[in-house]
Amino acid sequence: MRVRLDWFGERLSERITAIAAGQLAPAVPRDAATVMLLRPAPGEPGGVEVLMLRRPASMAFAPGAYVFPGGSVDTADGDPRIGWAGPGPEVFGDWLGASPDQARALVCAAVRETFEESGVLLASRPDGSPFEPDAASLASLSADRALLAAGRIAFAEILSRRDLVISADLLTPWARWITPEAEQRRFDTFFFAAALPPGQRAAGEHAEADRIAWLRPAAAISAAKAGEMLLLPPTATTLHEFAACGGVAEILASRRAIVPVEPRLVVEDGAAWLLIPDETGYPL
């Protein structure tokens, strides 16, 4: 699949050429995690809605694009104080093709970023019993979410003061995408699917999103084809896959082989093209 890029600059062209010639080493991708939060679509048996965030127009990268909650793994995601329930890091490592330590950090990052960007906390009690917050708990979590975003509290502390652990069993590994070599900022991003937990709701814009919305995957794809919505290739591909599924339960029961997908940037006849492997089924 070839996608012509509307944006193109001399600096990018030089990077593509230099990397292809072996004159410049590509940036090393940073580990990252993203979560597709799902809920049943009202009035549509077997249908799903997925939570999406719109990036502000002021952002340097992909302004206006609709994305899933997520971000880079950081040092704090390896904090041993973060408790864990569900399949262990060794099991997730096997699923993801990662070491147990890397898998643990990825899952912790997925849960942390989802909470920070949407307010949804994928957590449970240490014995694995569900976390069902009341109104007071939700208000308290909202306050701590703001402190977390400001760097004034550790995620481990948010969990421990409520006797909670991350609930790894809520996450279904779905895909892995790596930013093309020619990009200056690169990410090795692992995608997870999760159902919206009972009693919780996604709420509030934040620094990296000016709108949140629950969207039917097929509707989002149609809007992107009509030029009404901007979707990055991994996002569009994932939505296309969800649209072909029979509901939230079917998605979460999937056990997919997590194979890295790495599109390539090339320059041909003065134009920049993104080459996406055909087997991804990219729909745009």
Structure write-up:
With 284 residues, this protein is of the alpha/beta class. It has one domain (28-255): Nucleoside Triphosphate Pyrophosphohydrolase (Alpha-Beta Complex), CATH 3.90.79.10. Helices cover 30% and strands 24% of the residues. The protein has helices spanning 10-20, 89-96, 100-118, 135-149, 155-160, 217-225, 233-243, 248-252; strands spanning 2-4, 30-40, 48-54, 65-67, 70-72, 84-85, 123-124, 165-167, 172-178, 187-195, 211-215, 230-231, 260-261, 264-268, 271-275. Strands 2, 3, 4, 5, 9, 10, 11, 12 and 13 form a nine-stranded mixed beta sheet that branches. A three-stranded antiparallel beta sheet has the order 1-15-14. A three-stranded mixed beta sheet has the order 6-8-7, with no helix packed on it.
